[in-house]
Amino acid sequence: MEKIYTGKTKDVYRQEDGTYLLKFKDDVTGTDGVFDPGANTVGLSIEGAGKAGLRLTQFFFEKINEAGIPTHYLAANIEQNTMTVKPARPFGQGVEVILRYKAVGSFHRRYGKYCNSGDPLDGYVEVTLKDDDRNDPLITDEALEMLGIMTKEEYKTLGQLTRKIGEIVKDEMAKKDLELYDIKFEFGRVGEDNHVALIDEISGGNMRAYRGEQYIEPLDLEKMMLEA
Amino acid sequence: MEKIYTGKTKDVYRQEDGTYLLKFKDDVTGTDGVFDPGANTVGLSIEGAGKAGLRLTQFFFEKINEAGIPTHYLAANIEQNTMTVKPARPFGQGVEVILRYKAVGSFHRRYGKYCNSGDPLDGYVEVTLKDDDRNDPLITDEALEMLGIMTKEEYKTLGQLTRKIGEIVKDEMAKKDLELYDIKFEFGRVGEDNHVALIDEISGGNMRAYRGEQYIEPLDLEKMMLEA
């Protein structure tokens, strides 16, 4: 087993059978010791954060696989904090896909001339580049294609899958009386046919959730979702 | 004749016959007394700047009208620094359309991970909101539609018209040994059928042009384009 990548919150190993192993760490992103899922630096380490993130990821990926939506997920080993996945090739050096049901965060910062914070959005999808130095800039389907990152056909597929996955996550959260405001996904190309598939993780740090008027912190969210 | 708008570089009057009169001023945008077409504040006044901008605008709009592309342009009066135009309704509170033949400026700042400054782009079109407070944010066709600013159909038309207009401008500039790197247009809805039409102006401050390796300042560009 060969370590091929050391990430902010996960390490990646290549296994002899061609699958990959993601090892979830207790490090979380943040600034000045305060947990902030949107931050680009590791801010602190929280005991059990890795396991909680993995358990929620397992929960959602199994639902999504069951729905017939392509993902990289194969299995999870909660005891060892690891997830076995199919190898995936990133779009360019990595993109993030954001699905929004409410106008909050960077959407409202950008488009506040045309919306109020918290206005409902009808499953709006946008893509940003993973680029810490440039604050993960927004990019259009046309620019993605022109820069050789993704075809317009892939962009369309990715948007359709994102909306389907979002509905699954939203419905599961509604069962726990939680409202999903927005969520961030990663996609890659998987298999010999290079089909678009959901990759990475779906944990509390990937989304913004509320119970009534109350914002729910990622670690609390994971607890609420996973309790029987 | 009623003054209905005082702009940074133009004032707008409504005339009795229903047309509008744009009065070009010698004020130009800039910062700390230095001319900067991208700036959002009036920086200084340059004698003759209004007339030069109007003459170049007249030159291009007449070519574009001749090509059968819809614009708001009706006539220009160079002596009085005025242009007569059809009334137009903005998209939302105004959008800007940027056409890029080279990866420079904000495109390179955003996507520098995937391109070098000056890389050729194949007529890439993007739309930004006119919003000084939020630094004119980039916006996708999906967000424009969701926020009620523009339909996807209008976005498509606008992209097609932009590329056609860009070719006209680029070809005219090439005749003067000038290379167009990028250019900014405004569009609006004109006529009872609300068709998408080019509005505002096309002057030196709307574009980035080079002669060989040499960046050409807007006022020099206007002189070069207009000399016999």
Automatic annotation (TrEMBL), chains A, B:
<comment type="pathway">
    <text>Purine metabolism; IMP biosynthesis via de novo pathway; 5-amino-1-(5-phospho-D-ribosyl)imidazole-4-carboxamide from 5-amino-1-(5-phospho-D-ribosyl)imidazole-4-carboxylate: step 1/2.</text>
</comment>
<dbReference type="Pfam" id="PF01259">
    <property type="entry name" value="SAICAR_synt"/>
</dbReference>
<keyword id="KW-0547">Nucleotide-binding</keyword>
<dbReference type="GO" id="GO:0004639">
    <property type="term" value="F:phosphoribosylaminoimidazolesuccinocarboxamide synthase activity"/>
</dbReference>
<dbReference type="InterPro" id="IPR028923">
    <property type="entry name" value="SAICAR_synt/ADE2_N"/>
</dbReference>
<feature type="domain" description="SAICAR synthetase/ADE2 N-terminal">
    <location>
        <begin position="3"/>
        <end position="215"/>
    </location>
</feature>
<keyword id="KW-0436">Ligase</keyword>
<dbReference type="GO" id="GO:0005524">
    <property type="term" value="F:ATP binding"/>
</dbReference>
<protein>
    <recommendedName>
        <fullName>phosphoribosylaminoimidazolesuccinocarboxamide synthase</fullName>
        <ecNumber>6.3.2.6</ecNumber>
    </recommendedName>
</protein>
<dbReference type="InterPro" id="IPR050089">
    <property type="entry name" value="SAICAR_synthetase"/>
</dbReference>
<keyword id="KW-0067">ATP-binding</keyword>
<keyword id="KW-0658">Purine biosynthesis</keyword>
<dbReference type="GO" id="GO:0006189">
    <property type="term" value="P:'de novo' IMP biosynthetic process"/>
</dbReference>
